[in-house]
Amino acid sequence: MTGPARLVRPRRVAEVSALLGGARPVAGGTDLLVQRRAGAPHHSLVDLTGLEDAPPPLRVTAGPSPSLVLSAVAPIAVVVDALDGRFPALADAAAFFASQQIRNRATIGGNLATGSPAADTVPPLLAAGAVVTIRGADGEREAPLEDFLLGPRAVDLRPAEWILAVTVPAPPAAGGYRKVGGRRALAISFLDLAWQWRADDGVLRDVRLAMGSVAPTVVRLRGAEAELEGRRVTPDVAHAAIAAVQADIHPIDDLRASAGYRRRCAAGLLREALGSIDARHPHPAASHTHLALPTTSTSCEHPTCPVSAGDIVA
Amino acid sequence: MTDIASTPWVGRSQPAEEAPEIVTGALQYVTDLRLPGTLHGVVVRSTVPHARLDGVDVDAARELEGVAAVLVAADVPVNALGPRDVDGPVLADTVVRQVGEAIALVAAKDAATAHRAAALVRVALTPLPVVSDMAAALDDDAPRLHAHGNLSGRIAFRSGDVDAALAGAHLVVHHEVRTPGQEHVAIETPGGTAIWEDGHATVWCGSQNPGLHQRKIARALGVEPDHVRMIGGPVGGAFGARNDDPMPVYLALLARATGRPVRLHTTREEVMTAGAKRHPFRTEITVGFDADGRILGSRVRALADTGPVITSGPNVMKTSAEMSTGPYAFEAAEFDGTVVYTNNANAGAFRGYGVPQVAFAVENAMTRAAQRLGVDPVEIRLRNALRGGDRHSLYGHLTTESLRVDEALRIAGAHPLWADRDEWAAGATWPWRRGTGVAVAMKGVGMGSGTGDTARARLRIDGTGHVTIWAGPNHTGQSIQTTYRQVAADTLGMSYDDVSVIVGDTAVVPESGPTAASRSTYAGGAAVHAVCLALREDCERLGLHLDTDAAGTGEKLEALGRAEHAAEFRLPDTEHIGLVPHADLATFAPHRVYGSCAQVVRAEVNVLTGEIRVPELLCALDCGTPINPGGVLGQAEGGILQGLGLALMEDHVVTDGIPRTTSLENYLAPTVADAPRMHTVLVPGAEATGPYGAKGMSEVVVVPTPPALAAAVLDAVGVLPAELPVTPERLLALMEEVA
Question: Which residues of B touch A308 (CB under 8 A)?
Fold first, then answer.
């Protein structure tokens, strides 16, 4: 397309790629509007919200180990409603994603395509082993989310390609998400963590951890995963896992937080997540962990916990 | 004193009269006004913090088709925003001293053309060294921003022998705090419309002080003030920002230059870059206590950064000085405050006006003393509380009987939020800890003794019996006219619906000073009360019955030529000025009337991340008679949230003179998700000089929140934050330091 910026609104999935020569795909537009206000050029746009044959907000595949196929072009609020508790870490992330008004417009596809290391839906999707379904002129291809994320504002989308859907194996019940930001809504994260695992009689299996805003892309914490895999979370195991976080993250200083804070807070977030299962801070290892279970301890005696009893002024 | 049990209107919550229009979106704010043939204005601003302005080439911009005017300093008849050099120019002339400083004004047929023309303005600049650190601004080798240097103002005063008091103290607490620049974040950004007709300017633009803006416009245009009509609302929020705002002057200049209506509306990024902020302060306090926690003496030193021009700088420090002794009674006090010029953001009036900054130091010191002495934090404050009728600790002047610091503290101390704090703390869930903090503050009502602070009102009754009142201070979002109507209705013995109030228009409203200094209800309400009394007394003399026959009364008064009345209320000076030399009364401006507020904050701190959550908060508010209790609650809750923003997240960051937080994406203010459950309890009381016993309250509510939060953090995790805002990063670092 040449000349003034145009907006086209195709009705069919098959029509989209042909329209993308010189134009950008748009769905919620919530990031695009901010970029334009900051001076970004006004490209022609192909609106993905009018596709009559787009996938439904959620499809659960049949079979013994069902997968969740999430629409990349439906509003996040609609997708999370449809999940109805099937993917608690994503629901938690959505709860802290911007505001309800933005969740009513913004899409998972947009959140992925933006390529932000601070994108809130990415850690739970990455931890869950999400696969991105990409539509192009020659049909569909699939890319593991981990490979799809190339760097800040850089993703593996080739000319005329757009994101149709995201597929994740149905996650285990134990999982969660924690975001640290400057306020409790409408805040870009200082950092965030998504986790999932299965706890078999106290032994962790299939441990998957993903952290945002600590590297050029959201990253898996593979070192910490390896320390935890197949083990019980004793204080020593927790300590080793927390220490291993540092090698997998490469945070920077920015206006929101310093690299040093992000490193300490990264350790703290994993500590908090593990606190839901370790013996020192006993919590049932089951189910969706909101980390809000009662304890009577007034100080933490664990070696990795920054506050000891001596800090407390009675 | 008045028994409000018998008043049908005063003391009963009344919805803001414009509330239905606000919630339905029907209200036409000043920036919504559209006149036929309106031109669009744009301000060309400096992108550097300090530079010699070698020239501004506007030829290309003026030649662009559709451009009606491009104005530079030489086009402004009197290029000054005030009578002194340090008030700064309307448009930069020989130097720019701040990123965002206005250099040229453009008016064009539409916004796109105006922006294109603005981009064609060529500004030749020679960079100059930047004054970015307030602590270094007075160094001998600091670049000088004004002919006399970088000292904007200093206020110092001493009562008693502080050295001796500290030497004899059982405990001396020394504490240093830093408080940031804070953005007002009024929902409506500055803007409006102006027209120029027959040598007269009419300007619709938000203003807390329409009379002052009228005079500023007249000065810049070189015309008489009565050739300028300033209509200062409806405006979408102010909080101090519509006091120093030069926008009305820009509008009037463009309207006169083009002869056409001109509309200008700044973007959020523009106002966050160029608009005034709360003064950043560094404050140091040394307080001595006896073994029982009684204050023996205190010394406070404060340094404030007012940016490149004076705006409210020294006046803000004047309020800091007066409140540097907190709401406490003791014998020996010293204050020394300095305001400096820098190339940072210009700072100006902001709700609390210099009090939150020093109160954070004072109250943190009280919190620390309570901890060190093992005295309950409410009790130590009660032992020192200034009581109504006491002499002020710094100036020795008399306060009025309505001051109820002690009762506010007693209410806070008896409330379950405080009384049950141990039980609440025990319910914490790792890694969160719980703590509860308390703080108290007071603030003067009005501009202070010796300032001649006066509010005025006019009134007319018509043949139908309807009463119209023109009164000030102006409405800037608090719906002060609703309050004025309640006062008028009860004073006249009429229904609220039979009274109209008009505010904010210099053509019809008598000069009443600013919507500032917590004075609107007290002073404006008193002027309305006085003008209504004048009418009522006239009726009584003439044997007319307003309450039973308003229409007949109106008809007869019209026939007699007595349908109009005017009155004024001059804020009474303190009855005894104490230690302040009479000739210096206005310099220190001690108050007669004070409001006070105690708050209890519950905080949860995450020991692993430094995050803070505030689930619940109590506000005990000493405001005299609440004319409109619903309005008081709204002001209290809004003020608390603004105080929590200052405490937890709001921070206008400027590095090397470059503002970094220029949008609401990176300058965070609290959302409703951050708002605690707030309980506001009104302390019974009445101020004898106020209308129906009322006094001001909308500033003092901001003040105790940050120190109460800091005390709650201390209670939770054993560290007392001394720098605002208490971000997760700062708090985690503090906890690690101690560990």
Answer: 739
Please give the pLDDT value at position A172.
84
CA distance B613 to chain A (A): 9
Report, at the CATH architecture level, how domain B33-128+190-265 is classified. Answer: Alpha-Beta Complex (3.90)
A-B contacts (CB, under 8 Å): 109
What's the pLDDT tens digit per position in A68-106? 999 999 999 999 999 999 999 999 999 999 999 999 999
- Nearest chain A CA: its distance from B717 CA (Å): 6
Domains B33-128+190-265 and B281-448+580-738 share a fold: no
In whole angstroms, give the CA distance from residue B303 to residue B284. 9
* A270 to chain B: closest CA residue: B608
Contacts of B648 in chain A (CB under 8 A): 183
pLDDT band at A3 (very low <50, low <70, confident <90, very high): low
For residue A305, pLDDT over 70 is answered with no
ipTM of model: 0.94
**Are B608 and A291 an interchain contact pair (Cβ–Cβ within 8 Å)?**
no
Q: Which residue of B has its CA nearest to A292?
A: B429
Class of domain A8-46+54-169: alpha beta
Report the candidate in B277, B9, B303 with the shortest Cα–Cα distance to residue B154: B303
Separation CA B544–CA B562 (nearest Å): 12
Record: fold of B4-26+454-570: Aldehyde Oxidoreductase; domain 4 (3.30.365)
Are the Cβ atoms of B608 and A265 closer than 8 angstroms? yes
- Position B2 scores a pLDDT of 57
Among candidate residues B156, B105, B98, B148, the one with its CA nearest the CA of residue B128: B98
CA–CA gap between residue B308 and residue B49 (Å, rounded): 9
Q: Give chain B's radius of gyration (CA, Å).
A: 26
Contacts B715 to A, Cβ<8 Å: 313
Q: How near does any CA of chain A get to the CA of B358, in Å?
A: 25
In order of B15, B132, B238, B398, B612, the CA distances from B208 in angstroms are 22, 30, 7, 29, 35
Q: Is residue A220 exposed (0-12), middle (13-18) or buried (19+ Cβ within 10 Å)? A: middle
Taking CA–CA distances from B726, the nearest residue in chain A reads: A182
Q: Are B525 and B487 in contact (CB under 8 A)?
A: yes
State how far residue A63 is from chain B, nearest Cα, in angstroms: 40
- Which chain A residue is nearest to residue B671, measuring alpha carbons? A185
pLDDT digits (tens, 9 = 90+) for A172-221: 888 999 999 999 999 999 999 999 999 999 999 999 999 999 999 999 99
Task: Answer yes or no: are the C-beta atoms of B157 and B395 closer than 8 Å.
Answer: yes
pTM for the predicted model, two decimal places = 0.95
Task: Answer yes or no: do B732 and A268 touch at CB < 8 A.
Answer: yes
Task: Assign a CATH topology to domain A175-287.
Answer: Enolase-like; domain 1 (3.30.390)
Beta strand pairing status for B454-461 and B467-471?
antiparallel
pLDDT tens for A148-174 read 999 999 999 999 999 999 999 988 888
